Amino acid sequence: MSLMLKLLAITLLVNSSVFALTTDETVIKFLEKSFKGNPKIVALKVNIADKVAVQSMQGWSAYIVDIDATVKAEPKERQVKQKMIWFSNGQLITQDLIDLKTGDSLKDAVSPAFKKEYYKKENLIYGDADAKHKVAIFSDPLCPYCKNFVPKAIEFMKKDAKKFAIYYYHFPLSSLHPAAVQLVKAASVLQMRGYKDVVLNLYKVEIDAREKDVNKILAAFNKTFKTELKAEDLTSEAVVQNYENDMKIADEVMVQGTPTMFFDGKLDKSKRKYEKAE
């Protein structure tokens, strides 16, 4: 659980509760008042980043909220930023809505729109930028499901450059696969040098996902790509910036697991819309 979630858990007891509200501004004021009840929160800013109508619940909307807080910590205060989802119909607010028939959480179907500015030139790995469909993929090369699924999906779509523009974003799950962080940075080096098929070959690197020794990770990477990258190559300002940009976009669209796919700007939970695209 993140620091922000722990802090909010102390402050809020609304996971299964509903409170009276009247306007969008009241949503913000309600959340600010609730969060500020936590003595560890020194400063707080709440902003509604997006508002999405809940299709199956007439009159209800999902609010995607940005939380920016300064919290007490040792040795000094920390700034914590996080996105959260809340539901409101203008009169009530709750953190989740459960479908009584299916038992599904409606929160799982909510995602921020994938904005035009997220389709960056450096993330386009195959296809034409003006292709009929845009597919955004967030993936960790050491995620077992990703290794089996992502290369096949890319191979399927790359055959038709006019139909699919494939945008790829490195999203290593550092707590589970620490080796992936260095692998994607190494991949970024080659991408910036103009190497072809870097992403597809990245999934062929054989390394223990728990490995943390950068030299061992690079040895496996260089063996696959027949390159001679060194540890210092991964620390250049351009490489670090590229890594941070991908992670920032992932945060903006609330990516939490891999692989995560967006099809024409909307979250594709099935990850299969590309197969039926016309």
Defining traits:
8 helices, 10 strands, globular, alpha+beta, 2 domains, five-stranded antiparallel sheet, Glutaredoxin, 278 residues, five-stranded mixed sheet
Topology (SSEs and partners):
Blueprint: H1 3-11, E1 19-20, H2 24-35, E2 41-53, E3 61-71, E4 78-88, E5 92-94, E6 124-126, E7 133-139, H3 144-157, E8 164-170, H4 178-192, H5 198-202, H6 214-225, H7 237-252, E9 260-263, E10 266-267, H8 273-276
Parallel strand pairs: 7-8
Antiparallel strand pairs: 1-5, 2-3, 3-4, 4-5, 6-8, 7-9, 9-10
Helix pairs in contact: 4-6, 4-7
Descriptive notes:
- With 278 residues, this protein is of the alpha+beta class.
- The protein has 2 domains: 3-109, no CATH class; 116-276, Glutaredoxin (3-Layer(aba) Sandwich).
- Helix content is 31%, strand content 23%.
- It is built from 8 helices and 10 strands.
- The longest helix has 16 residues, at 237-252.
- The chain starts with a helix and ends with a helix.
- 30% of the residues are buried.
- Mean pLDDT is 91; it is low at 9-16.
